[in-house]
Amino acid sequence: MQRKKRTEKIILGLSSAHHDGAACIVKGGKILAAIECERLTKRKKDDLKSSNVRETINYVLEAVGMELNDIDYLALSGSPHTLHKNEVQWSDNVYNLGLRGWMIAHHLAHNAAAYYTSPFDTAITLSVDSSSGFPHLYYENSSICVGDGNTIESIDTPSIPYGVFYQRVCEYLGIGPTLHKVGTLMGLAPYGKSIDNMHFDLEDQHEVTNLIEKDFSSAVRIAATAQKDLEQRLLDLVRQLPSDSKNLCLSGGTFLNCPANSLILKESGFNNIHHFPGCGDSGIGIGAALFAAHCICDQPRHQYKPHEICYLGKEYKQEREIDYEYVARRIADGAIVAWMNGRSEFGPRALGNRSLLADPRDQHNRDRLNHVIKQREWYRPFAPIVLEESYQEWFDFDVPSPFMLYTAQVKRPQEIPAITHVDGSSRFQTVTKEGNIHIYKLIKEFEKITGVPILINTSLNGKGQPILETPADGREFFNDVPIDMAIIHGEILER
After folding, report:
1. Alpha-carbon Rg of the chain, whole angstroms?
2. Nearest-5° angle of CA 307, CA 409, CA 465?
3. Dihedral over Cα of 159, 163, 164, 165: its sign
């Protein structure tokens, strides 16, 4: 592949699979902005299509103060059956944008997103997602790559349909066939005890049932067994990766599974592991843009801090200064607060800028959030957001978790029951003053009042909705949903 002369190139990246459409801007090898189109169209897991592609692109252009004619190249990645392994294809006038650029193979883009956002000069990378990977429906569902400096190359694309398997178990239990429901299975699994010596046939296509309602005790045993099976299979896979590098990068929607990630971190043998927070298919546009920037255009790599790869939305006008102490007192008194401040998160997890916040000491808050506000299953857990300097006092874990991708045992569950799952675990997020000044100050004030440096943090959305994006979205949510208070870029709404 012929490299382009190194000058500061501006690249528009697009995720153009059949779901999770997204756009991003990369300049000089650095990610400047990104957005998932679902945040704009209000349709969960929406894909890029002629009706919304301009809206999505215009969002990221506006976020960085550019116009379409400022773009040097387009880079996009689509469905895994389009290109394979190391394939890169030159494309002209994609989506009738009048731009030239490259189409990057799906899993190569997944791996590129993880590798180029990592701090590593060399690394083994692995992507696994839920693409149809059964032999009779085969196309790529995984890829193993080697990253070295500015280059990354796929060395293997094994057929490992673990993501599809997990999705099929969801269907069998009656959780639902859609991709965004797999997290429900992860939340259900701790209610059951796994069945020893039971392994699932990954090719078995079970009928859709309603087992959860018919026989909950059986359903949770199957969920627990499926979760344990997935964890062990992924760990075995990682242990078989080439051992030349002690650095590992992970991407693909399967690595949104927090218990599996935690097991890999503890037992894989790799010294350093990096997760890309937008590791689902919305992130392949970022991966394609970074591949084009570094591997083709030879742009210098950027050493990202965690907040630089998760808070990628546009800046909105800050209406007024936030009274952090007042908001913290309202939360300590039982209020559930819609919190919309700073640039929106990229990826499926709310990381403190588009969040519903509540007191973790009150078990009632969990029930109220599930039943009344989120209108979802009673057994779904809620995650905590904790000050990074304090997380080891409360969670049994050795490294920070800025992207909410790990599960840890809670050390003091009786003090924070609303975020402690039935098995004593919690999917926690750590936050620093540098990474997110607004949520940091709020938690600090809550700690002064209660002695607890933790808040319940769940995504700011209603039933079946994507995470909210705009101030107008936040005001509409406050009017429609029975929450107590909303902070929207400093604007206070309360009942």
Report:
1. 22
2. 50
3. positive
- In 3D space, the residue among 211, 238, 214, 248 whose CA is nearest the CA of residue 226 turns out to be 211
**Amino acid of residue 310:** C
Chain centroid, CA 477 distance in Å: 22
Identity of residue 334: G
**Separation between Cα atoms, residue 166 and residue 202, nearest integer Å:** 9
Residue of 246, 264, 247 lying closest to 255 (CA atoms): 264
Angle at 274 between CA 24 and CA 310, to 5 degrees: 35
SS (H, E, C) the chain: CCCCCCCCCEEEEEECCCCCCEEEEEECCEEEEEEECHHHHCCCCCCCCCCCHHHHHHHHHHHHCCCHHHCCEEEEECCCCCCCCCCEEEEECHHHCCCEEEEECHHHHHHHHHHHCCCCCEEEEEEECCCCCCHHHCCCCEEEEEEECCEEEEEECCCCCHHHHHHHHHHHHCCCCCHHHHHHHHHHHHHCCCCCCCCCCCCCCCCCCCHHHHCHHHHHHHHHHHHHHHHHHHHHHHHCCCCCCCEEEEECHHHHCHHHHHHHHHHCCCCEEEECCCCCHHHHHHHHHHHHHHHHCCCCCCCCCHHHHCECCCCCCCCCCCCHHHHHHHHHCCCCEEEECCCCECCCCCCCCEEEEECCCCHHHHHHHHHHHCCCCCCCCCEEEEEHHHHHHHEECCCCCCCCCEEEEECCCCCCHHHCCCCCEEEEEEECCCCCHHHHHHHHHHHHHHCCCEEEEEECCCCCCCCCCCHHHHHHHHHHCCCCEEEECCEEEEC
pLDDT, one tens digit per residue, over 144-200 is 999 999 999 999 988 776 767 777 788 778 776 555 677 888 898 999 988 876 666
pTM of the model: 0.93
414: phi > 0 → left, psi -120 to 50 → alpha, else beta; which?
Answer: alpha
Structure tokens at 380: 């779904």
Tell me the domains of the chain and their CATH numbers: 10-116+276-304 (3.30.420.40), 162-271 (3.30.420.40), 324-494 (3.90.870.20)
Provide the pairing of β-strand 122-128 with 73-77. Answer: unpaired
| Cβ contact 68:61 at 8 Å | yes
Residues 475, 486: contact at Cβ < 8 Å?
yes
Q: Of 8, 123, 18, 119, which Cα lies nearest the Cα of 72?
A: 8
415-460 pLDDT, tens per residue? 999 999 999 999 999 999 999 999 999 999 999 999 999 999 999 9
How many C-beta neighbours within 10 Å does residue 210 have? Answer: 11
| Distance, CA of 6 to chain centre | 32
Q: Tell me how far CA of residue 466 lies from CA of 37, 40, 255, 423, 453, in angstroms.
A: 10, 9, 20, 28, 28
